[in-house]
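Entry 14. Structure prediction run on the chain below.
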Amino acid sequence: MIGAIFHLARGAHVGFVLAREGALSFVDAAELPPHLRLALRIGRTLERPGLGAGAARLSAAMTRLGPSYVKFGQFLATRPDIVGMAAARDLEKLQDRVPAFPQAQAIRVIEAAFAKPLSALFVAFSEPIAAASIAQVHKAVVQDADGTQRTLAVKVMRPGVRERFQRDLQVMRFIARVVHALSPQAERLRPREVVEILARSVMMEMDFRLEAAAASELAENTKDDPDFRVPKPDWELTARDVLSSEWIDGIKLHSKADIVAAGHDPQAVGRAVIQSFLRHAIRDGFFHADMHQGNLFVDRQGLLVAVDFGIMGRLGPNERRFLAEILLGFIMRDYRRVAQVHFEAGYVPAHHSVDDFAQAIRAIGEPIHQRRADEISMAKVLTLLFDVTALFDMSTRTELVMLQKTMVVVEGVARSLDPRLDMWTTAEPVVRSWIARNLGPVGRLEQGAEALRTIADVVAEVPDLAQRLKRVLVRLDEAGTGDARRLERFARDERRRAIVQTAALWAIAIGALVLAFR
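Output returned:
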């Protein structure tokens, strides 16, 4: 009861802040039942005066509510399928910058993580140089056994942030249940599912071992790339609350002037941004989903370096083929092929017409070919594509939405370095290379070999499956040829066996829970 009162009070505070900052303007009253329309009208009266048409309403509200809501808002900015495009654009304005916490607290976190004094871990350890809602970064120097010194970036979890996230998460779950109870129609927006998606995303981001693993995987995928690299994590100095990685001496992509002053070619860097992202997405199926200027550097060798791997995206083989063929289809103006790819991937229901869908795709593609290449937005084309596919009952694909949002950011970064960058010419070599490799003769042979392996696995299981089937048939035959008493005894034995197995599984589960909370 006390918990419910607390959640209700906290939920009321959240609602007041959202109303005060004008965030309720993103709610479509037409979608609400009458009693909630009245509540919305009352809430809109609380808006503070002077809010302009372009005001950052949602982002301002999230900032006022604190670090948990800032992080959740940043995640929602990647999900316009949930919050809508207008809200997503507003949330993109969120700046995850908060005051740093004292160095002494950071030192206590590090010493607790490794059970060693700071002096046994680092030769030098700086004051914080950057701070965000979850963590802050320090510059440190470590000395190897051979006497070599290395400079590291040490990311330290903000004390108490995990507990605060958990408290705020409980409030969000409570609000989602209340919304569902007041308006079952709101379940179309999946409020409870959204909260759980947010919870999984943020809790993964708050385990720095997982971020180090993401950096390691991306580094392995890109080790042979000529224009991109990833700072190496130092696993010996990485724990759940501490992430140590190679220090990057480079220039952030915020300033084109600084890049030019350092002797680098901004046009080449812009091309590297686009081509690196597409290689990671199409070739590897694993991409950095937060590639804004603050997370990208140019190092002394002119290589593009990415940092901060808390938010990553994955694409399966079908999605990678889907993306590659769609981009190539638009480049070649082959709209029927673009339409066929949607149907082959199962994204558009088969009862629709491929020709009708191709006609809709042409309505997107033809206008872009009437403009100069540097005026065409690849991200806008994908956004329009997803809008059109909604008319053809294409179900929302979370991984494709994240990809599209990341492409918007990446394209913006590239164009800030080279406003006349031809996105399509830049993308074509990457797309063609992947298609030639995976859909050409070599790729077909590899797919055939994989199919043969699958068939071999199935064939290998046939004898065991046959023996199991034989035992079942024998038991059924025995039950069928005996009298009713034997059939009843057979059923009773099977029921008893099922009860025993179920009890054993529960015992194992309870035992595991006990061990987990010891």
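The chain has a mean pLDDT of 78.
Filed with the rest of this week's runs.
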